[in-house]
Amino acid sequence: MSQHTAYDTQDTFEDDPATDLTFRLGREELIIHRRYELASIINELVLGILFTVGSVCFFWEQWMTLGVWLFVIGSVQLTLKPIIRLARRMHLKRLPESALDL
User: pLDDT tens, 41-61?
Assistant: First the structure.
């Protein structure tokens, strides 16, 4: 009898083909596994770039307004991280029409 940990369950969920994104490129397919993890990585990368560029903008007075806006956008983007984590754990699945008939 094997015991499963939360880590095992998480890996199983993330390896589920239902969580993959597939793009057809002619005769080829691009398959992105663990799409929520990818979204989180991209979000954090863009967030880091925004805050870094925003910080550099503060070296010159004429760029300070841009720096402030980059900080504001980055701060709003910080809310995306928990939204992505929440979306990863919740999926809305469309039921077939026959399942709606009672």
Answer: 999 999 999 999 999 999 999
